[in-house]
Structure formats: structure tokens, C-alpha cells
Amino acid sequence: MTEGETEGPPLPPGQRRAPRWRPSTYGRVPRLDPEAWTLTVTGATRGGGVHVLDRDDLDPLGTVEVGAGLHCVDRHSVTGLRWSGWRLRDVVAIAPPQEGVEHVLLVAARGYAAAVLVEDLLHPDALLATHVDGEPLTPEHGWPVRVVLPHLYGFKGPKWVVEVVYSHERPQGYWESHGYHPRGRVALEERWAYQA
After folding, report:
1. Is pLDDT of 5 > 50?
2. Is 146 in contact with 157 (CB distance < 8 Å)?
3. pTM assigned to the model
4. How many angstroms separate the CA atoms of 42 and 119, rounded?
5. Beta bridge partners of 57
6. Are 74 and 21 in contact (CB under 8 A)?
7. Predicted pLDDT at 134
8. Where do the H-state alpha helices sit in 17-160?
């Protein structure tokens, strides 16, 4: 074990354990009203409509808890986190894409966005998370809702998520437009665009 590491679950390749979970933010932390929060699902939706989902739409899906680390593309990992929220595959089921659509842009408050695949949203551990370790997320960590995709690097899971945009073409989010990998799978160490 190297200096600064602590005991815990096994790490993915190329990662080192972070001693604590520090917030990492692109710009200012937005202050969102959790009672007014909605998730807009748009783009190439089945039927072509726009779906605006609020907690009344999502709560009947039921919440689940998933144990998963948060892995940063800069090679540090926070392990042993217990996330809870709505499964993204259930959200996709109530607001699905058109047949054959593979791409999604996940948009956060203030314009940050990340590009993923529909199949990433269907991963059994993919969540719209509202809590971590039994407590509501703090604003710095994504309150009221953040995307958790444990099989992808953290830049693929926006905090303060407000929109899902289905697309027939591969979109570019913030980090993808700055040379980061379009897929970002942790197990394959997909960090940089030149690896694609």
C-alpha cells in the first residue's frame, strides 16, 4: 500500500485510493430548489415528445442502494460509498429513446454536460442519486440529484443533472470536447480521446 492509501475494496487498474472525498467542481456550485427540480428528457425520444419528470413521476419507481466507488480520470478513487436513488434504466423505461438511438448527453445546471451511451444508463448500478451513505447529497456533491455511473470515470456523471438529451449522433460534453475519452470505462482505463 502506498502513502496516503487506506484499506478498502480493490481498486480499478491505474487508480490510487483517495484519503477522503473532496468535491471537484466545474465553476460555482448552483443552488437548486429540490422541490422545484425537474429532469427534462428530450432529443430523439420515442414519439418525439419532451418529457418533464419531477419527484412525483420518479418516486413510484422506488429507490435502491448501490455500493460503488467514484473514480476520477486523474487516477484517484473514493471507495466504499453507498449511493441511493432511482435506477436510470427505470427512468429510460418511462421516457425512452427512439429505436436505434445510442447516444445521450447528460446536462447539468449551468451548462456542464457529459456524453454517454444509452447502454451506460441501462447498467444495473447506474443511478440518479439523491443520497450517499444514508444522507442527502450536499450541494458541493450534487444536491439535489447527480448521475452515478460507477463503471465510468466520474466526469461522465454530472452533478446537478437537469436534462437527458437522446441523439442519433455522438455528442460532445465539456470534457469530451477537451480531449477526454468519449466512453470513459474505468476497467479499460479509457482516459483520453486518442485511445478511442
Report:
1. no
2. yes
3. 0.91
4. 17
5. none
6. no
7. 96
8. 55-58, 88-94, 118-121
